[in-house]
Amino acid sequence: MTGLADHLIIVPILLPLVCAAVMLLFDERRRDLKGGIGIATTVALLIVSIVLLRQADLTPPGSGVRTYQLGNWPAPFGIVLVLDRLSALMLVLTGVLGIAALLYALARWHRAGPRFHTLFQLQLMGLNGAFLTGDLFNLFVFFEVLLAASYGLVLHGDGTARVRAGLAYIAINLTASFLFLIGVSLAYGVTGTLNMADLAQRIQALAPGDVALVAAAAAILGTAFLMKAGAWPLNFWLPTTYAAASAPAAAIFAVMSKLGVYIILRLWTLVFGADAGPLAEFGGDGLLVIGMLTIVFGTVGVLASQSLPRLAGCSVLVSSGTLIAAIGTGAGTVIGPALYYLVSSTLGLAALFLLVELIERMRDPGADVLAVTMEAYSETNEDDPGEEVGVAIPATIAILGGSFIACALLLAGLPPLSGFTGKFGLMAAMLKTGGATIQASSWMLVGLLTLSGLATLIAMTRTGISSFWARMDDSVPRVRIIEMAPVVCLLLLCLGLTVGGGPAMRYMETTARALQAPQDYVNGVLSAPRAGSTDRQAHP
Amino acid sequence: MTELVFALAVGILTASGVWLLLRPRTFQVIIGLSLLSYAVNLFIFGMGRLRVGAAPVLENTEAVDPALYADPLPQALVLTAIVISFAMTALFLVVLLASRGLTGTDHVDGREDPQ
Fold first, then answer.
1. What is the first-listed, main subcellular location in coarse terms (chain B) (predicted)?
2. How does DSSP assign A65-95, residue by residue?
3. What does the domain layout of chain A look like in residue ranges?
4. Domains in chain B with CATH codes
5. pTM tops 0.95, yes or no
6. Rg for chain B (alpha carbons), in Å?
7. Which residues of B touch A144 (CB under 8 A)?
């Protein structure tokens, strides 16, 4: 337990924290240096995440999870970090999006305001911490870390639209945090623990009088997480905020809204699994209904969107809604394809957010707020490399258009990209009940998924025609390789997910099976030995 | 009696906070958020059970009767929550001022309601 390799779990949290702290020491004008440190850190993060994913994948199912006890206090007294297949998957996803968004930002966005790189690293730290932690209150702390960073990133680049959206975003997230705190403390007051694994165990032996209180705590917590995930009716802030945020910030926010989905999936399968006594599958129908309503709202939003950024924001809602509804069906076989869909739609959405800004550039070249603020900042910047960060690429329109079509295929769920595999897997899992009659809700969800795909296709086609074919002027936007490469790489990853669909789906299904057997997680966390001791700690 | 006063205090703070949060002026929103954070902090504290005259810190490492002591964990949680909500309120204040400066109004929508 004392080998260096065992400390690898905490690296995804410590590395960005140290990096962010170091960057604060440098002058704001040394952006290239900061960018270099940022890229190096993010690449290192991705490598560590992939190593952790390998380790999690090599652990045979049924042999527990890897834990890291902070301060060497055994769970449930100390705070633990837990690495299982699901958290490792989310870490890798965060790492990939982090690199893509940061590379994109290096072209110009990191010059649009102060301390972009520090905020970005803290955002990554918060996300990684929230994915790794096995403790409810620690989860709250990491939520606040990533939210505090995201407040800064929403406002990055300045401008009235961002400040106005940021105001609503901060207010609603502060309120959600208060709900989170109420839920956490209520759960603690009743069960006497904050450790998720311990909570799962204690909930099975709940006094009859306490059941209602735990249900209330779970409902309040669920509301807070659904707010972050963008579930209807608490999601009116999301499209506006994501549309107003700068492109790299919006791309990293694509994984942030999936964090809410992740927590719901984690807590719901762990705490309210089949053996949770009177609270088994608590709120499953609610999740299903809320998910379906979110899909409807997102679909209407996609169709009604006048601008491309807003369309991308509404697509986030469709994706979140699909996942929440899939979790709410309560069928174990749906979780695997849902995770596949989660990865593919997050990559697709991030690519779309990055792409949207490039396409919008055609519309009013250089006339946006960014240009003004960048001028204001680069006045004091003597070593500003100017506009020539990379070479403007030939055939820009063709590449932009091709990427746009790929995004449309991904989000609408059409072959040959991974969006199709994900949606098809979801539908197949819902309709394959092994002889039992298919529930009406499953049919409704399948219908909604099809309709939302159709609506996305219509809306994206319409926007594509007006952006690429029916333009008034023939100006070619100035797009640099460093901006185009992240978009293309994200889309290629989706293609890779399709080509390597077999292994990817196998991993997701193993993850889903592990989530269905929460006892494994509980035992792994609670009976993990302390470092330096040979006896396995019996937990009280 | 203590419980009743405590519960009333939390309830009134929450109700006032929610009401102010839904008001159209940014200053009312920030005061509402502050009141809500007070209510939540009190609530967390209350989840450790209300005890009079019980210390949260063990005095010695000998065998002690935990029933004589207050639960220290919620108090630690409250400290964390206070620090975080204080920082967030300060940040919100900055955004509020920026919004006031950029839009020229203290309405949450950035423009006055048409009369």
1. membrane
2. -EEEEGGGPPTTTS-EEEE-HHHHHHHHHHH
3. 283-366+392-517
4. 2-51+70-103 (1.10.287)
5. no
6. 20
7. 84, 88
